[in-house]
Structure formats: structure tokens, C-alpha cells
Amino acid sequence: MARQPRTTSTTSPGTRVAKRRLATVKKLPRPVASGSNTTPKSRPGDPIRPQKPRRYRPGTVALREIKQLQRTTNLLIRKLPFSRVVREIAIEVLGPQSGVGYRWQSVAILALQEATEAYLVHLFEDANLCAIHAKRVTIMQKDIQLARRIRGVWGGLG
């Protein structure tokens, strides 16, 4: 659509004669908006821009993490912080005796950690079932409380 013939009618004082004139319409380049959608052309010497990190759809990364964690048998809680908590609770419960420290075998702390993680995973599974029953996908505090109440006093793993 670069050139189009256009008919214009002009009137002279005595007669009405239509004269045909070619009017040229040139296609002008559109002005470039200075918005965020335009990307400037790269020039030699410009630093290379790092690409944006990939944005996954909601839930994709969570499902990938769940699958990866279900494949592994590693402990989920770090060993040293768990060991500190165990020692702190032992001192609170048994009472600090004068000058006597408690010594722990690493296998004993590892057994406690295995049992603790098994209990917590089972508790979260039950709490998830409670949340699903309430037509929710998010676990809330009331779900955990209900799961513990249904389990009973000992809250076994069965």
C-alpha cells in the first residue's frame, strides 16, 4: 500500500469539471514507542545481558521437589542442629547436674532423628488428609491438631 491513486474533484468558477489527479501517499515508518516491549538492537561492544531465570507454572516445582524427596532416603533435618536440640531438651528434662555433662553416642542421636522424622512425616500425611477432607490443599494448624487428636495419646505410626 505504498502508492494509491486518489481522485479529487475541484470546481472552477464557470464549469464543473472533475480533474483526476494522482496523489501519492507514502508509507512512513512508524515511530518507535519507548516502552518496555521494545528491545534495543545490540551494538558491538555492548555487554551481554544475562537471560531471565526460567519461570515455571505454579505447582510444577513443588511436584518436582516431592518426586525428588520421595526417591531419596536421606534425612530431611540437618544432623548438627537436631543434635543441639536433643542435648538442650535432655538438659531441661534431666536437670543440670553440677559439673556433669551428658554424653551421647552418634548412633543414639541418629536413631532419635530417624524416629522423629518418621513421626513428623506421618503426622503431615494425616494432616494433609484432614485438609483434603475440608476441601483445601493447604495444611493449617487445625489440621495438625485434628490429626493428633484422632491418633490418640501415643500417636503411633500405624
TrEMBL record:
SUPFAM superfamilies, alphabetized: Histone-fold (SSF47113)
Region (Disordered): 1-59
Low complexity bias (residue ranges): 1-16
Sections of the chain in a coiled coil: none
Compartment list: Chromosome, Centromere; Nucleus
Biased composition (Basic residues): 17-29
Annotated Core Histone H2A/H2B/H3 domain residues: 58-150
Pfam families recorded: Histone
InterPro entries referenced in this protein's UniProt entry, alphabetically: H2A/H2B/H3, Histone-fold, Histone_H3/CENP-A
PANTHER family assigned: HISTONE H3.2
Subunit structure: Component of centromeric nucleosomes, where DNA is wrapped around a histone octamer core. The octamer contains two molecules each of H2A, H2B, CSE4/CENPA and H4 assembled in one CSE4-H4 heterotetramer and two H2A-H2B heterodimers. Interacts with the inner kinetochore.
Stated role: Histone H3-like nucleosomal protein that is specifically found in centromeric nucleosomes. Replaces conventional H3 in the nucleosome core of centromeric chromatin that serves as an assembly site for the inner kinetochore. Required for recruitment and assembly of kinetochore proteins, mitotic progression and chromosome segregation. May serve as an epigenetic mark that propagates centromere identity through replication and cell division.
This protein's name: Core Histone H2A/H2B/H3 domain-containing protein
Source species: Rhizophagus clarus
